[in-house]
TrEMBL record:
<protein>
    <submittedName>
        <fullName>Uncharacterized protein</fullName>
    </submittedName>
</protein>
Amino acid sequence: MYSLFYRPFKVFLCLIVFLNFVCCQNSKNNINTICNKTYCEKGILAGDKKEGIWKRYDNENNLIRIAKYKNDILHGAATSYYKDGQLYSVGNYRKGKFHGNVSVFYENGNLNFSDNYLKGEKDGYSYLFDREGWLKSKWFYIRGHKNGEQYFFNKSGDTIKTEIYKRGKLVDSIIR
């Protein structure tokens, strides 16, 4: 009974190890490095264009960004880091423009702001936070323009100001 399970498992394990070795060997051989005065990037070139996952390192060899490219254009997830490795930002690109949520963090790990994008324009809610973590303001965008009520808060979470926008133009402001 034991050998009936063990043999297929052993074959499967050998196959996984072999495929991992082949994949790693191929990817290591295709890694390119591009450097300038402030950073180096490592990833795969298809012809002369960035393709797939690229990692950016500063001059001290600290990983400062991981981003996905398609045909030399940012396309997909991107994550950036402070020099100490702490998360700086996460976002998504589509054809070189922000698309989806983009969040930036303070060095203490608290969220600084969170914006939503559609094809490179703010679209949906945006939130701005204090370094201590409390919500300072909340805005709503449609195709890159503030629209509707925009709120500003104090540390207690009370609304201290409301601005009303229509297609990007301020039409009213209420201070409380």
